[in-house]
């Protein structure tokens, strides 16, 4: 995940250990993806849309 975000131009990536099964992606302090709503990890295409162009 980190490598994909870096390739997309993300410069400030923080990965933290959460509750069991928790997976959230925040960009500039804004929650952009949460596994708790989808029940799954994001696809590569979804990750590509998380960062502003």
Structure characteristics:
single chain; 53 residues; alpha+beta; two-stranded antiparallel sheet; 2 strands
How would you portray this structure in words?
With 53 residues, the protein is of the alpha+beta class. It has one domain (2-48). It is 28% helix and 17% strand. It has a two-stranded antiparallel ribbon. A hairpin with a 2-residue loop joins β1 and β2. The radius of gyration is 11 Å and the shape is globular.
Layout of secondary structure:
Layout: H1 2-7, E1 24-27, E2 30-34, H2 35-38, H3 44-48
Antiparallel strand pairs: 1-2
Strand order of the largest sheet: 1-2
Distance between the termini: 18 Å
Q: Tell me how many strands there are.
A: 2
Number of helices: 3
Helix content: 25-40%
Mean pLDDT: 83
Number of domains: 1
Q: What is the N-to-C order of secondary-structure elements (H for helix, E for strand)?
A: HEEHH
Largest sheet: 2 strands, antiparallel
Note poorly predicted spans. none
Category by helix and strand content? alpha+beta
Shape: globular
- Strand portion: 15-25%
Cα gyration radius (Å): 11 Å
């Amino acid at each position: 995940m980190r490598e994909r975000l870096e390739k997309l131009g993300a410069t400030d990536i923080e990965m933290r250990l959460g509750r069991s099964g928790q997976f959230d992606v925040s960009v500039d302090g804004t929650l952009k993806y949460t596994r708790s709503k989808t029940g799954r990890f994001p696809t590569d295409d979804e990750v590509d849309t998380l960062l502003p162009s």
